[in-house]
Request: fold
Amino acid sequence: MKIGVVGLPNVGKSTLFNAITEAGAESANYPFCTIEPNIGVVDVPDQRLEVLAKIYNTQKITPASIEFMDIAGLVAGASHGEGLGNKFLSHIREVDAIVHVVRCFDNEKIIHVSGSVNPIRDIEIINLELALADLEQVTKKYEKDCKLVKTGDKSLMDGLEVLKKVKAHLEEGKCVRTLPLSDKEKEILQSFSLLTAKPVIYVANVSENDISNLENNYSKQVFKFAQNENSGCIQLCAKIEEELVSLPKEERPLYKLELGITESGLEKLVRESYDLLGLMSFLTAGEKEVRAWTIKKGTKAPQAAGKIHTDFEKGFIKAEIVSYADLIDAGSFLKAKEKGKVRMEGKDYTMQDGDVVLFRFNV
Reply:
């Protein structure tokens, strides 16, 4: 899973990126300090893996992972190349979801590219630039397909109707994700990788003083905006996240306790990302390795097996499954089996979050 971190310059993007990935990207108080996207691969926090490792007596733990891409600050006019915009926009097309960092704090020492703090204006600047970039792409495709249909190619008619609907929506400056579309229409649009069709998590970046205040006046506006377009939203303080990762790991829980923080920024982002994208994890465990695998909710057993290796899906026979809770309650796989908690599931089984699985296959 790839997630792009976007926002206006000087809103705390790179500070947050550094904190969640510990990648050490350059972060400074001037626009465009990020030019090429910084990339960091982070482990998905999952306490279940440590518990399973003790049960199976293994030292190798492989969590699921997320790739974060810190994309340079966008500005008004980015869709027409302002602030190196075209280059930055091309990076966003590569991601599965967008984390949109919004400044929700006052600080005269940190320059705001628009001269004042206004989170909804800032969101709309970014969204409009993404919509304009999408409109240019959709218009070109629409005009090309119109000509082809006139020459007798009727196979493009369905796609043309979808493009027409999307084009009208974008011309109003609206994001494609807010346009009601059927599953078939969404499928037609998939190949375009439209920027405004991507799922978004808005991150309300607040000051250290507001971290225990669930919603300050600025972040309240962001949460309401996100709710209206069915997007994700979390509040955090990038500065505190930066301080947190500078501490030794054993000292971090105490620091969080002192601040009244129950989750780190990474934990919040992962949880919200999984919810927004409809993802979950199944687990494999043995003496050699304990591992988490990310799949879409609703995935059938053979397709889940294919995440491990394509041969597992091709030659799928059965899946030997015990839920994580039942396994922990029993204390071992053998005891869970004796209690009748281990099930043999076939090709029609829908995977559940926390399933501990051993796939049976034959190639």
Q: What stands out?
A: DSSP finds 14 helices and twelve strands in the chain. The two ends are 29 Å apart (CA to CA). The first helix runs from residue 13 to 21. The longest strand covers residues 316-323.
